[in-house]
C-alpha cells in the first residue's frame, strides 16, 4: 500500500487521472489527484500563479498524504508540465515524499526553464499550432478541435472525446521560471522517468534529452501517447508501483 499524489499537466486538471486513480485504488493504494490552483482562472488569478506556489501546494498534499497513510511510502508523480511542479516540491520539502515519477514530463536541470528547454529543442509544429494566447498573454488555451491528434492520438476515441471539452486555461508565467533544484534536496529523492514512445507533445527525443540532462532516474518505457492515463492506464499503474521501495 502506498499514497500517490498525481499532478496534472498544462490545460488539464485532476480529472485526467480518473481511470488511473480508480486502478490504483483497486490495488489498495490511496490517491490524491488535485487540480492546481489558478487553472482556468481570471487574468489576475492566472498572473498570481507561480512555480513556487504550485510546488508549495504539491508538497503540502504530500505531507497530508503522509499523515493519512502512516508509514507507507508517499509517491509524487507529475505528467508533462507537472514535472516542473514535482521537482519544485521536492526541492522545497524532500522529506515529504519517498519517490518522484515523471510521466513523459518536464525533468529539467537547475536553472533551466520550460521556455529555455523549448528553445533548445526547436519547433514542434503540430503542437505549437494548437496553442492560443488568452487574457492579454496571462494564459493559454489549446484548440480542442486539433488537440486530440497531438495529446492522445493512440487513446480510445470515446475517452478523448470526453476529455477535450474539459481542457482549460493554463497560466503562462510558469513556463519561463527556472527550476530551482539542487543535488542535496531534489537530488536526494529517488526518481523514475516514464517515457512514452508515441508522444507528439514532448517527443521521445526530447524526453531522452531531459534524461541525459538530469542523470540518475530509472527509466520505464511505455508504447503510449502523451496521455498514457487514457491509452495505457494499467501499464501506467504498473510503472507507478515500480517506484515503491
TrEMBL record:
UniProt-listed Pfam families: Abhydrolase_6
Keywords carried by this UniProt record: Hydrolase
Gene Ontology MF terms: hydrolase activity
InterPro entries: AB_hydrolase_1, AB_hydrolase_fold, MES/HNL
Lineage: superkingdom: Bacteria
Domain AB hydrolase-1, chain residue ranges per copy: 5-239
Protein name in the entry: Alpha/beta fold hydrolase
Amino acid at each position: 500500500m502506498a499514497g500517490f499524489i498525481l499532478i496534472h499537466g498544462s490545460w488539464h486538471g485532476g480529472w485526467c487521472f480518473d481511470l488511473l486513480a480508480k486502478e490504483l485504488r483497486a490495488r489498495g493504494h490511496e490517491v490524491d489527484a488535485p487540480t492546481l490552483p489558478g487553472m482556468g482562472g481570471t487574468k489576475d488569478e492566472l498572473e498570481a500563479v507561480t512555480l513556487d506556489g504550485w510546488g508549495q501546494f504539491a508538497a503540502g498534499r504530500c505531507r497530508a498524504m503522509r499523515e493519512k497513510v502512516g508509514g507507507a511510502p508517499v509517491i509524487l508523480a507529475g505528467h508533462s508540465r507537472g514535472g516542473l511542479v514535482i521537482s519544485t516540491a521536492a526541492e522545497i520539502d524532500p522529506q515529504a515524499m519517498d519517490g518522484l515519477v515523471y510521466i513523459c514530463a518536464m525533468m529539467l536541470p537547475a536553472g533551466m526553464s520550460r521556455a529555455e528547454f523549448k528553445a533548445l529543442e526547436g519547433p514542434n509544429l503540430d503542437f505549437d499550432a494548437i496553442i492560443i494566447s488568452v487574457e492579454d498573454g496571462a494564459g493559454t488555451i489549446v484548440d480542442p478541435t486539433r488537440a486530440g491528434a497531438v495529446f492522445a492520438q493512440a487513446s480510445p476515441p470515446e475517452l478523448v472525446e470526453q476529455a477535450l471539452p474539459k481542457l482549460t486555461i493554463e497560466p503562462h508565467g510558469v513556463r519561463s521560471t527556472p527550476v530551482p533544484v539542487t543535488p542535496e534536496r531534489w537530488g536526494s529523492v529517488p526518481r523514475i522517468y516514464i517515457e512514452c514512445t508515441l508522444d507528439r507533445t514532448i517527443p521521445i527525443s526530447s524526453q531522452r534529452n531531459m534524461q541525459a540532462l538530469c542523470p540518475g532516474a530509472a527509466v520505464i518505457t511505455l508504447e503510449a501517447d502523451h496521455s498514457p492515463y487514457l491509452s495505457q492506464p494499467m501499464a501506467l499503474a504498473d510503472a507507478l508501483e515500480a517506484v515503491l521501495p
